[in-house]
Amino acid sequence: MGRFFLTAMCARSRIGEVNRDERVHDRSESHPGGATVTTPPAGWYHESAGDQSRLRYWDGERWTDYFAPASFWRPPQSTQRFADEPTRPHDISTPNAPRQVRDDPALTRLRKAKRDALVGLVCVAAVSAGIALIVGLASPDPDTLGYEVGKAAVTVLAASIVGGFIGHAFFVQQQTLLTEISVQRDGDRQVQEKLERDRLEQRQADEQVRLEEREADRLAAEKRDREAERQREVWRRQVSEKRAELERRDAILRGVLDETLAAYNAVKKERRMIRTAGGRGIPVRRYAEFGERISDLQLEFERLRRTSPLLTDERIEAAIRAWNGLSDNRHFVSLERGFQQVEEYLGRLVREFETTLGGAAPLREMPDEQSVETATLPALASFRDQRDKTGFYELSNPATAVIAVLIRALLEPEHLPEPEDVRQRGVQVQGRRAQSPG
């Protein structure tokens, strides 16, 4: 019975060695060209003929039932597919050849420990089987050294077999546990990588939004600058046109002022000259010359009266209000009315002159010693008499008012148009003041 048991143990050990050799042969096949193709190590791979949207775990010998999504995984730069490595010119691909994704160092160490333990157990079992076989063939008697050695060898062989099964179960359990841990770790890493990619994409999206906002702000600022420049250009053109208009009006006012001053000064000159002509009588020739000059000046003031309505300058109205505000006794109405008062006063002198010398001989043929009595000329007497406060003042007061109004109008400050932004700020300030309760 002992011999049969030893023989069976040796046969089982031999079968185990043969199976091991076959597995090793399956994992290392010789290529017809002489190259050796080694199956990939354990790790996560894409199935060549399977679903490419997920990964499957390869334990080094066969596919397992562990899967993981492939959308979260990004291969490192050093990872290569075994079926595409250029250093293997005679690589043989099969329909189920996996493509390597990632290998777990813990599983690699576990497989190495399993392989070393298996080799040790096989060696111990082989030695024990050999000893038991030799002892069994010698058929020693009980209670002899050979018999005890054979029994010990059978015990060691049985322990090796049982230890092999136990070790195999332990290694399978550990491999399963490490595989689950690796799957969990890879899943967590993939989720973390996805979250990191999402954060990166969100930061990129936020940065893109900020860039777009800055670009929109820049374009809006450029648009505002262009609009402001356009408004400033419009304002400059308005100011230029306004200044040109003011210069034209100033030239007209200065012309009227110069003509008024010249005519008024000529009237005062004639008054001074007529006072020096004599006391009670005035030579006829001198009176005739006076009448001609007064007639010309009356026509000049008549022309100024007729053209004064053409002076449509708002500064004249402001100057008239300022002139009347200097005294309660001033009631100046307009330039036309002032010129009319001067013209009417000079008109009385001209009509008196025409009445006095209307039927006389030509003035140039009259003798120089002939004179005209001033007592018969009330308008002339009022014109030349300095004591009469109602005579010449009927001319000087409106003439002085006209001259003063023209000068004040020329001295009025220029009211140039304001820029658009200044007007808008003024409107906003006025609006806030109107809304304030105080």
Say what oligomer this is: single chain
For the report, how would you describe the main beta sheet? 4 strands, antiparallel
Strand order of the largest sheet: 5-4-3-6
Estimate nothing, just give the exact number of structural domains. Answer: 2
* Helix fraction bin: 55-70%
Contiguous helical run count:
9
Inertia-based shape: rod-shaped
Strand portion: 5-15%
**How many β-strands, per DSSP?**
8
- Radius of gyration from the CA trace? 66 Å
**Mean pLDDT over the residues:** 76
Terminal-residue CA separation: 126 Å
Strand/helix succession: HEEEEEEHHEHHHEHHH
Topology of this structure?
Layout: H1 2-27, E1 28-30, E2 36-38, E3 43-46, E4 54-58, E5 63-69, E6 99-102, H2 105-138, H3 145-275, E7 281-283, H4 284-307, H5 314-325, H6 335-356, E8 371-373, H7 378-384, H8 393-411, H9 420-435
Antiparallel strand pairs: 1-2, 3-4, 3-6, 4-5, 7-8
Helix pairs in contact: 1-2, 1-3, 2-3, 3-4, 3-8, 4-6, 5-8, 6-8
How would you describe the overall organization of this protein?
- By secondary structure, the protein is α+β, with helices and mostly antiparallel strands.
- The chain has two domains: 2-28 and 35-204, no CATH class; 277-414, no CATH class.
- Helix content is 66%, strand content 7%.
- It is built from nine helices and eight strands.
- Helix 1 packs antiparallel against helix 2 and helix 5 (314-325) crosses helix 8.
- The longest helix has 131 residues, at 145-275.
- Mean pLDDT is 76; it is low at 1-36 and 76-101.
Q: Brief description of this entry?
A:
This protein is an alpha+beta fold and 438 residues long. The chain has helices at 2-27, 105-138, 145-275, 284-307, 314-325, 335-356, 378-384, 393-411, 420-435, and strands at residues 28-30, 36-38, 43-46, 54-58, 63-69, 99-102, 281-283, 371-373.
